[in-house]
Here is the input.
Amino acid sequence: MKSEQLLRAILPDVLIDNFDVVNFEKTDSRFDIWLDEKKVQLKEDRRNGDIIAYGLGEYHEIRDFPIRGRATYLHVRKRKWLDKSNGEIFSYDWDLSEYDGTRLNAEFVAFLKEGD
Here is the structure.
């Protein structure tokens, strides 16, 4: 089994599609998984040379469903983008309509929808 298949089995697809796992720690009581948003622009921003990557925001800790009896904490951070034409710094809001009925908890949905 490929590692991506395993990740898709335990994490929401929106995470695997749009974030990279950058660290993982296992202790006797919990799993901690760090995820950074991929450096991928929306189609309309790729055409606009004024939109550039501008680093990553702070990690947000989200408690997910337990795995194998251990608490699971996702440490997720979104990418920041700079519009050089007006100096605006922003993050993408994710359209989560395709994930209705999945196991995304309210805290995680709120994080993905928030802009900086």
User: Anything to note?
Assistant: The two ends are 37 Å apart (CA to CA).
